[in-house]
């Protein structure tokens, strides 16, 4: 069965974007913070519509394909796309939990849950997220779009590894408990 990994950056105070949805506070030059290594393990992305639009606003679609395989990108939205999506993007209006349960059964590599928190919350509650890779950026935003939405019950995570960089950015990599 394929694993689902929530790999996401957050400010130190727990926001994934500024109040206007922008992410200009994220580091942009120098380090890749393990991104290339992680990206090499994945072939599928899951995004909410707001995250998809934010990615499009920041430049060309980055998840179209690589030298030896092609990404499939699923964007969850109740509304049809305004712009013609990239050929690798499929809009999904299905309920996320059932869709991801079926997707995990298909052959492939790691499924990258990019975000945002509105999409991640039901998948976390359903036990469909196997790992959390949280890149904590040493910035305090004070307000914005929160990483975490309401969770039905507390979860104890198992630390897999940590990594730090000279600029103070920290990767926290956890395994989530399996749902029975």
From TrEMBL:
Where does the record place the Bacterial bifunctional deaminase-reductase C-terminal domain? 2-170
InterPro entries found in the cross-reference section: DHFR-like_dom_sf (IPR024072), RibDG_C (IPR002734), Riboflavin_Biosynth_HTPR (IPR050765)
Q: Enumerate the Pfam families for this protein.
A: RibD_C
| Protein name (database record) | Dihydrofolate reductase
- Organism this protein belongs to: Hymenobacter terrestris
Q: What is the lineage of its organism?
A: Bacteria, Pseudomonadati, Bacteroidota, Cytophagia, Cytophagales
